[in-house]
Write a structure and sequence with these properties.
By secondary structure, the protein is an alpha/beta fold. Helix content is 18%, strand content 37%.
Length: 121
Amino acid sequence: MQKVTGIGGVFIRAKDPQALALWYQQHLGIPLCPDAPYGSFIAKAADETVWSTFAADTAYFGSVNQQSMINYRVTDLEAMLTQLKAANVWVDEQIEDGDYGKFGWAMDPEGNRFELWQPKI
């Protein structure tokens, strides 16, 4: 059985992504990349958790009513998506393969979209 290996990211909708990211940096010490509304926590090599704000009108989360989205790390994205489909879970047919690895999306029974990430090793 496929299982998630950790939290790959936490994403928050914001009216002003840069301003909200800076607020979190100032008040909670969230590490941000220079001039960007995101940053990473790295506990050990290949164990990265991204924290990021997104524009309030982003379509990335799916429904505009979904305020945040969690990214889960997996070791085999395609096997995980196949497993979810077999369990009649809604799975987005789109898979992105980019510089940071492969990404896929699915939805829980309450309609919350989540992201699955297979990092490049």
